[in-house]
Amino acid sequence: MSALDDSxxxxxxxxxxxxxxxxxKLRLAIITGRFQPGQxxxxxxxxxxxxxxxxxxxxxxxxxxxxxLVTSVLNRGQLVVKLTPEQVGQIYQMRQLLETFAAKEFxxxxxxxxxxxxxxxxxxxxxxxxxxxxxxMLQAGRKIYSAIANGGGNAFVAETLGLLHNRIALxxxxxxQDHDKFLTHCDELRALSKAIHDGDADLAKKLCKAxxxxxxxxxxxxxxxxxxx
Length: 229
What we know:
By secondary structure, the protein is mainly α. The protein folds into two domains: 6-80, Arc Repressor Mutant, subunit A (Orthogonal Bundle); 85-224, Four Helix Bundle (Hemerythrin (Met), subunit A) (Up-down Bundle). Helix content is 69%, strand content 3%. A two-stranded antiparallel sheet has the order 1-2. A hairpin with a 3-residue loop joins strand 1 and strand 2 (77-80). The longest helix has 25 residues, at 85-109. It is globular, with a radius of gyration of 18 Å.
């Protein structure tokens, strides 16, 4: 999946709330690069693209701002967040602290339902080894990271990790252009999953730390290179 076309932004159907539909469309547009980091989000243009009213659009933008994907700037309105390399480094420092803790606790706790969620994510990654659908890769990875966060048993850690993942979703989407690295990450996550299943907490923490160190380097490079791989 590449950047969304304008036609993809049209909101149709009412199976969920209009606010949630608009939020999801705009979130996808940001994550896949349809709206670029630093780009101004003009209400009139977005209303035309999505076909919704300004009140619904504003609700969606407020939610995206809470997720860290959108920011409000004086005299410029709302913009897509554009992180600096320093900010990315700080995000990954925090992510490493929390995610390695969660991985270690997951290996210690090994709640069956949470292990099944992890296995489902690993299976999705395996199915994508020969598939170039970057958005599907992103979603599979997110399912795994969510399983690890929840498997740690600390709701506040899981919530914070969710916010961090929101902020770096576009960076990860760009990084997935390198399929060889994707395959390496698949192997790393599979090894981490095995350590968790085996109940080896120390190994799970070690593998998680090594995995995050590698992807942090790539993320900082992408941002320093103006969001290009």
